[in-house]
Design goal:
The complex is a heterodimer of chains A (126) and B (154). By secondary structure, chain A is mainly alpha-helical. Chain A contains six helices and no strands. In chain A, α1 runs antiparallel to α4 and α2 packs across α3. The relative contact order of chain A is 0.17. Chain B folds into three domains: 49 residues; 51 residues; 31 residues. Classes of the chains: A mainly alpha (126), B mainly alpha (154).
């Protein structure tokens, strides 16, 4: 029963992190290039525009859900399993989500990069 | 830094949650939180001009820096499997860095799009036409007598 709980929590971490990353990315694309906006309107406008974006607020909430799922998973199993498994799943999940929801053009180069980094993180954090 | 600070404070039970707020006053924890905020700001800035699938692999270089710091600064042992992990991440970052940073649509507040070759050709044509007009104007100016009043009287 314990592995089931652990893997449920790992999937919850990955799903919440992917949702958070996609929402934050969409929010920042809506806000616009921060550097240009800062030059044109100042730092206060940049912060106000980011904090008033609904996608940003939802993204931060999703990140918080991911963080608490991580705490739950760590209370059930070792960090050497939870850390690399969640990080690798998040990388692969992000590649799919970015293609579907953000309409990013993922060529072979990007797919290879996602797989290499996911494998590398699994080996490094394990 | 967060880990070092929290180890100084000791384990916190669920009944003593207010101790978490006291933990923020620990200098190691405070600096750790500030660095986390700096990372988040840099991450958001990068997401404003680059794809998510570009920023995520690039930011994973942090894992490599962490492992190299552990090996060469803290003199920890790094296993062969971890060295393979470092090579894989570096390779992944190299792959993604060779391509364009932004492939999705541009956002509404973005600056004007890059001019196409046709636009540049039109611009050059316009420039050449302007040069012709200026040159004709200069020629007429040269032909005009220096004293316009005398010219009118005559």
């Amino acid at each position: 029963m314990k592995p089931l709980f652990t893997w449920s929590a790992i999937f919850a971490i990955a799903i919440a992190s992917v949702i958070g990353d996609v929402l934050l990315s969409r929010a920042m694309k809506q806000v616009g290039d921060v550097h240009h906006l800062w030059d044109r309107s100042g730092l206060r406008t940049v912060i106000a525009r980011i904090l008033s974006n609904p996608n940003f607020l939802l993204g931060v909430c999703a990140m918080a859900v991911g963080f608490f799922s991580l705490l739950f998973a760590l209370s059930w199993d070792d960090v050497s399993l939870v850390g690399p498994a969640a990080a690798s799943l998040t990388f692969i999940g992000n590649a799919f989500a970015a293609k579907v929801f953000l309409h990013e053009k993922l060529d072979r180069r990007r797919w290879i990069a996602a797989v290499l980094v996911a494998g590398g993180v699994a080996l490094l954090a394990g | 830094m967060l880990s070092h600070g929290m180890k100084q404070i000791g384990s916190i039970s669920l009944h003593d949650l207010p101790v978490l707020f006291v933990a923020i006053l620990n200098p190691w924890v405070a600096v750790g939180i500030l660095l986390l905020l700096a990372f988040f700001a840099a991450y958001m800035n990068a997401l404003s001009w680059a794809d998510l699938t570009y920023v995520l692999p690039a930011s994973s270089l942090g894992y490599v820096v962490l492992a190299l710091t552990a090996r060469f600064v803290l003199h920890e042992q790094v296993s062969p499997l971890r060295w393979i992990g470092i090579v894989l991440i570096s390779g992944g970052v190299g792959f993604v860095a060779g391509g364009p940073a932004l492939t999705s649509h541009t956002h509404p507040h973005e600056t004007a799009p890059e001019p196409s070759l046709e636009d540049l050709a039109l611009l050059q044509e316009g420039d050449a036409y302007d040069d012709e007009i200026v040159s004709a104007g200069e020629k007429r100016f040269a032909e005009t007598p220096l004293d316009p009043v005398r010219h009118i009287k005559s």
